[in-house]
Amino acid sequence: MENDANGSLGDEADPYSKLRVGITYNLKKGIRTEVIDAEAEYDSIDTVLAIKNALECDNCHIELMEADTDLPKRLKETPVDIVFNIAEGLKGRGREAEVPAVLNMFNIPFTGSDETTLCLALDKALCKRVLSTYRIRTPKYRVFTKDDNRLNTNFSFPCIVKPNAEGSSKGISDICIATNKEELKTLVTDNIKAYGQDMLVEEYIDGREFTVGVLGNGDDVHVFSPMEIIYLKKNKFNIYSFNVKQDYKKLIRYECPSKLDPDIEEEMVFMAKKIFKVLSCHDFSRIDFRLNSEGKPYFIEINPLPGLAPGYSDFPMLAEFCGMDYVTLVRSILRNALHRNGLPFQI
């Protein structure tokens, strides 16, 4: 089966022909920089191969396509029916939109959310602003730029400081909490210099922490039971930081299903579905929440391009807790995208 001139499938698609799947990704290169988590968002080749192995079968042929500046040329030279996208992009506030935008330009279907949703979700402040209009409860926040002079104004403490457009806890260190104006000024100034972008300063919600996985589309959306992140060492401020994620086996444990009041879980699941729908997410996403002292869930952030590293990333971990193994999860994501795009393949 060949793609037409625009890259789309012909009308006579044979459901029993071999499906050609491209996997787009960005790899960790091991480049040393002053920032230890510079490549936090990128994947190892082991993750790419795990996805490849999960998808490979008699009806499926896999093409590996690193998402560098040669990707458009590679897509022209190697026709595929659909792309399994895990690429984080190369640079900028809209980096996660780079590959989906190229794929849409070539009229090639792909897994996951489109470029608009990915841009909106990566900009944490903009995402919170949109969701607040739908009455989604979220911590109070403010964005600081390098030219901002509001650091001397009143602000509620404690607060957490993090890059406004990053994921994978990039830029969230073990000392990201400010308890006074001087600490806030230091954290904001140092982090803007280190990461070259605006900083989100957010009210610290001092309560239990959860992440929720969403899988599917439309009326077939499934929300996994919330997975709790439980800190083994009780600190004054427990943060799911980059360092904690790197050493998670020693510092935290995961509980799913969690010991959560049914009414609170119901609200959290309802919020997750609503957020997924409002942001026009596709196929899969992961959404983070914290409870305040009254047990009310607060939306922290959403990742519509969650990591899929087996044995490490939260999304496959919570799916496994809920009875879905890695291969089934990866294939489910692809099936969701195939069905959403009206592609009649069987895998």
Automatic annotation (TrEMBL):
GO biological process, one term: regulation of cell shape
Subcellular location field: Cytoplasm
Entry GO MF terms: ATP binding; D-alanine-D-alanine ligase activity; metal ion binding
Origin: domain of life: Bacteria
Pfam families: Dala_Dala_lig_C (PF07478)
Similarity comment text for this entry: Belongs to the D-alanine--D-alanine ligase family.
The protein's name in its UniProt record: D-alanine--D-alanine ligase domain protein
Gene source species: Lachnoclostridium phytofermentans (strain ATCC 700394 / DSM 18823 / ISDg)
